[in-house]
Specification:
Blueprint: H1 3-33, H2 45-48, H3 52-72, E1 75-80, E2 85-89, H4 91-96, H5 99-116, E3 122-126, E4 132-137, E5 141-144
Parallel strand pairs: 2-3
Antiparallel strand pairs: 1-2, 3-4, 4-5
């Protein structure tokens, strides 16, 4: 076999290898970009590791606890952004509540945000003075002031 034929075979093999590599990389990228299961949900280990009890607490918070606290006048507004949840409360009613109630409310809010894949950062502030009454900071700190 002469050198010219060897060069043609070597270049052909190299071009074939580069072409196949490009094809498989492009196919892999298309699979990732066109997979609807990867869009719209926060892919976080906290959101994926929830128990049935946590799902029940989260559902109870959104269906029962939050509306009742709004009706009672404790919660004045509930705002959620991509980075945090801000809850404004009536300072007078908040101060009358027991520490057990406050800790339970923070726990329910934490579980609700965790189950639904929302940001865990939460602040509870006075609706008139903007004083900070409580907050949740990741990973699991719940502080009541």
């Amino acid at each position: 076999m002469n050198n010219k034929l060897k060069n043609i075979i070597t270049v052909s093999f190299a071009l074939f290898f580069v072409g196949m590599t490009y094809y498989f990389i492009q196919r892999h990228d298309e699979k990732l970009l066109n997979n609807p299961a990867l869009w719209g949900k926060m892919n976080d280990t906290l959101a994926n590791n929830v128990t049935d009890a946590e799902r029940r607490v989260a559902l109870q918070f959104s269906d029962t606890t939050l509306p009742q606290l709004r009706r009672l006048g404790l919660i004045k507004s509930y705002t959620r952004t991509e980075i945090e949840t801000v809850i404004t409360v009536s300072g007078r009613i908040w101060k009358e509540r027991s520490s057990f109630f406050k800790e339970s409310l923070l726990e329910q809010i934490f579980i609700y945000n965790k189950v639904n894949g929302f940001a865990l950062n939460t602040r509870i502030i006075d609706n008139k003075t903007s004083a900070l009454y409580a907050e949740i900071t990741p990973p699991c700190q719940r502080l009541i002031y």
